């Protein structure tokens, strides 16, 4: 069953006349009649009662026409949606990003892009690294902004920003007045850790491994905001980026002397996946921002 067969069928059903239908469709009458006959053979029932060139839709034809009209309407809507998404000046960019980046980094990035292309829209998803990575893999988005550099060459990593990490302690903590500390200074302190599904977890663990330090984990949290909240409540210490959304009352942010205690923020895409013109424009913009 082909789409053209369905279009031909609906035209004949609407006009109730093969000659007029063939003229409207700009095909020959034999070709039109053959297409309708082939469709009826596939369905196993006649769709019309015939009298010469005049035809009348029978009850099977009416039943089928109702369903086909709905299907054709959905196909038309689908084509329109694809056209809207793929338009280079007013299309849609599907992107996912880490929760914490929604407080500052992503809004600023999109604001700058909208100054150049105000009609392009965004379909945004936010969550932890595990969630946004699965969205990229499933094709629910074309780009993700994360702190985890992919290991596979099937992905492209575009470095966007390097963010220093800080030791975070309660204001009443014995280390709170220090100008800077080493990660070793946190030895023996109850540590508020991130669960492994959070992208920053691997980054911080790598920093600990570099200096052969293992924190005394007392709590594990799903996201950075919860970690900051636990520290502010006096339940432990942690290592976090100093970003909007985490600057809670009751926290002391201490620079870390150890080399390489940093968090990389970058944009990731699958290399072989089709990107719409609008998405390509945003990708080019992100690359330009990364080099400036």
Automatic annotation (TrEMBL):
Keywords, ordered alphabetically: DNA-binding, Transcription, Transcription regulation
Listed PROSITE patterns: HTH_LYSR (PS50931)
Domain (HTH lysR-type) ranges: 1-58
The keyword DNA-binding is assigned to this record: yes
InterPro entries on file: HTH-type_LysR_regulators, LysR_HTH_N, LysR_subst-bd, WH-like_DNA-bd_sf, WH_DNA-bd_sf
Domain of life, per lineage: Bacteria
GO cellular component term, pick one: cytosol
This protein's name: HTH-type transcriptional regulator YybE
Organism: Paenibacillus nasutitermitis
């Amino acid at each position: 069953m082909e789409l053209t067969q369905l279009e031909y069928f609906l035209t004949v059903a609407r006009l109730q006349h093969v000659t007029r239908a063939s003229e409207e469709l700009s095909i020959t009458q034999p070709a039109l009649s053959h297409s309708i006959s082939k469709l009826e053979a596939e369905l196993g029932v006649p769709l019309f009662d015939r009298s010469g060139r005049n035809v009348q839709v029978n009850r099977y034809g009416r039943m089928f026409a109702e369903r086909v009209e709905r299907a054709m309407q959905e196909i038309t809507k689908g084509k329109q949606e694809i056209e809207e998404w793929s338009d280079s000046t007013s299309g849609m960019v599907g992107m996912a990003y880490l929760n914490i980046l929604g407080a500052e980094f992503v809004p600023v990035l999109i604001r700058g892009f909208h100054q150049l292309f105000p009609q392009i829209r965004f379909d945004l998803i936010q969550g932890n690294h595990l969630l946004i990575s699965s969205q990229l893999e499933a094709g629910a988005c074309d780009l993700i902004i994360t702190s985890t550099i992919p290991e596979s060459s099937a992905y492209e990593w575009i470095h966007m920003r390097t963010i220093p990490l800080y030791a975070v302690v309660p204001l009443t903590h014995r280390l709170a007045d220090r100008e800077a500390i080493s990660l070793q200074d946190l030895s023996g302190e109850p540590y508020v850790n991130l669960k492994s599904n959070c992208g920053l977890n691997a980054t911080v663990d790598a920093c600990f491994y570099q200096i052969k330090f293992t924190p005394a984990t007392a709590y594990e949290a799903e996201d950075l905001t919860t970690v900051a909240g636990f520290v502010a409540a006096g339940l432990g210490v942690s290592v976090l980026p100093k970003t909007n959304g985490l600057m809670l009352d009751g926290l002391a942010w201490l620079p870390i002397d150890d080399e390489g205690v940093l968090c990389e923020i970058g944009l990731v895409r699958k290399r072989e996946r089709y990107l719409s013109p609008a998405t390509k424009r945003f990708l080019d913009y992100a690359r330009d921002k990364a080099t400036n």
